[in-house]
Each structure stands twice: as C-alpha cells, then as structure tokens.
Design a protein that fits this description.
It comes from Salinimicrobium catena. The chain is low in regular secondary structure and 56 residues long. It contains 1 helix and 2 strands; from the N terminus they run ββα. It has a domain of 27 residues. The chain has a two-stranded antiparallel ribbon. 2% of the residues are buried.
C-alpha cells in the first residue's frame, strides 16, 4: 500500500507539529496515520527536499 498526503505544520504547541525554514518539530501522532490491521508493518518516510537543498 502506498499513501501520499500533505502534512500542514503550522502549530507547534505540544499536540500538533511545526515545520519552517529552520526546523521540523514532528509530533508523531499528529504526523502519521495507520490502519489498525496494518500497524505491525514497517513505515517508510521520505522527505522531498529538492526545492530546499540547504534545509536540515
């Protein structure tokens, strides 16, 4: 199964997440989704940074 979605990161308050030009604060429950039936399968995350080669 492949699933792609857009993640908006404009609220860093401990519950949500924030992504800006300098960093990414990823709250895992606010970042990833899973199917209960597939939760034992590994997760692969890919960050496409082609348009931001200096971002860390």
């Amino acid at each position: 199964m492949n699933l792609e979605y857009t993640l908006f990161g404009n609220r860093a308050d401990g519950t949500y997440l924030q992504i800006d030009q300098t960093h990414a604060h990823l709250n895992i429950p606010a970042t990833f989704m899973y199917s209960e039936e597939l939760k034992q399968r590994p997760v692969k995350v890919k960050f496409d940074l082609k348009s931001h080669p200096d971002w860390k």
